Amino acid sequence: MKSLRIAAGLGFYGDSWQPIKASIERGNVQYICSDHLAELTLAILQKNRQRDPTLGYTQDLVPMLSDLLPLAIRHGARFVLNAGGLNPLAAREALLAVLRKLGLKLKVGVVLGDAVIERLDDLQAAGASLAHMDTGVDIATVRERLLFANAYLGARPLVEALDAGADIVLTGRVTDAALFLAPLVYELGWRWDDWDRLAQGIVVGHLLECSAQASGGNFGGDWRSIPDLAHVGYPIAEVWENGDAVISKAPGTGGRVSFDTLREQLLYEVHDPAHYLTPDVDADMTTLHMEEIGPDQVRVAGASGHPAPATLKIVAGYEDGFVGQAVIGYAWPDALAKAQLASQIITQQMAERGLKAEETVIEYQGYNSIHGPLADPTHAADLNEVYLRIAVRCSDRKEAAKLGRLVPPLGLSGPPFIGGLGGMTEPRGLLGIWPTLAPRTMIEESIRVSVEEA
Amino acid sequence: MKKQLVHLAHARSGDKGDKANIAIFAPDRATYDILLRLEIEI
């Protein structure tokens, strides 16, 4: 039976591509599928594009592929990446320029049509409310402040690009798992109504889409026992025509692929395991079987699928004010009490000076900044050190900047003794996230695929 | 007998937008059955 070996690329913009080398060299993989876009990454890319219209894609694309391509070509591996971000065409131009410089005659496909910010009126005119899908709030409340709006596309246009001969497929927003499903559908000849196989492909994609999070990174079990995370291997899947899969990693790499590391990733960000909704299939993970069949080898089979939903998810981002923040540290004895007095002084001064904050956050790092209200108060009296972090969210940048100026004087006029003052950080813009739904037919009619050779 | 959950099971959470999910994993069926009886305060 025919099978295909696919490798996890990056799990986010900023992840390391070094582990991919072992997957190519020793993992015998035919495709590398790389996820560069977290929910709000497009906001960073939007800022880049505002500064320079030739940007707007993730800028790890060119250095990563320059580094990996010589190896990948030698081993016959192709790439599928969502590194196109908000500007897949510009990403292709930048990549083609490098390919020509390196003398590599490769074909680069792009998928366009996920960006719908210019089409929101059309979508609304056709009956899509675009209300927030969790809260039901009207999109009019944020419409003027939207920075981007992108639909999550499925694997079909990616398969089209592969079918047109692309060695590298660049997309904007697609579901993370679609990056992995596309080569499976293309190479194994799966049909678009073969829901069980598509569901298996989505499960495999979901297991691989966060790179080392499936192979021992971020492991909530016995994390001390995971070997050599400094040389962690990213997960690799071998998938057969019938959908059965074995997840592994390249020999000689660190980390671990086990029943436990995989089941943690399986349910990561999954709100309903019986209905994992994607543009390609409504996948049911509750029928799945996973079994360790060797060291770092887990067989995954039996996912089932139902017809794909009639709507696609759009995630938009909007400007949501500015945060000003200050951090100041205190040492034992009475570290928390000192930090609390410092916070009292600042909040009193904020009130007296009329600093207009829509929200104020006060937390004590080393005590409750991660645990929040669940922090155990029995530790409070005898902490070695505590950092007060005070943050304000304001609609206006200048207002947010006022906070920083209240903090430095505490060095001489507050409780004893300060250490690690970080009081004067510039306010930074905050982004709100707006998830909503729209009819898939309206979005899909604007999808375009094109392939160009270097 | 009282035992902390961290000594019985492992867990991972993830989020989409403002919603987070928490997945808790039991090492065996018997522990899973105990987890089913837990009332968890959030």
Poorly predicted ranges of chain B (pLDDT <50, ≥5 residues)? none
Number of strands of chain A: 19
Q: Strand portion of chain A, in percent? A: 25-35%
The helix tally of chain B amounts to 1
Distance from first to last alpha carbon of chain B: 22 Å
- Biggest sheet overview of chain A: 10 strands, mixed
- Globular, elongated, flat, extended or rod-shaped: what is the shape of chain B? elongated
Helix and strand composition category of chain B:
alpha+beta
Q: How would you characterize the largest beta sheet of chain B?
A: 2 strands, antiparallel
Your description of this structure?
Chain A is of the alpha+beta class and 454 residues long. Chain A contains 13 helices and 19 strands. Chain A has helices at residues 18-27, 41-51, 61-75, 88-101, 120-125, 156-163, 178-188, 195-208, 259-266, 335-352, 397-406, 410-413, 440-444; strands spanning 3-8, 31-34, 78-81, 107-112, 146-151, 168-171, 235-240, 245-249, 276-277, 282-284, 289-294, 297-301, 304-306, 311-331, 359-365, 385-394, 418-419, 428-439, 448-453. Chain A has a 10-stranded mixed sheet with strand order 11-12-8-7-1-2-3-6-4-19, sandwiched between helices. In chain A, strands 5, 14, 15, 16, 17 and 18 form a 6-stranded antiparallel sheet that branches. In chain A, a hairpin with a 4-residue loop joins strand 9 (276-277) and strand 10. In chain A, helix 1 runs parallel beside helix 3. Chain A starts with a strand and ends with a strand. By secondary structure, chain B is of the alpha+beta class. Chain B is 21% helix and 33% strand. The longest helix of chain B is centred in the C-terminal third of the chain and has 9 residues, at 29-37. Chain B is elongated, with a radius of gyration of 12 Å. Classes of the chains: A alpha+beta (454), B alpha+beta (42). The interface between A and B is medium-sized, with 19 and 12 residues.
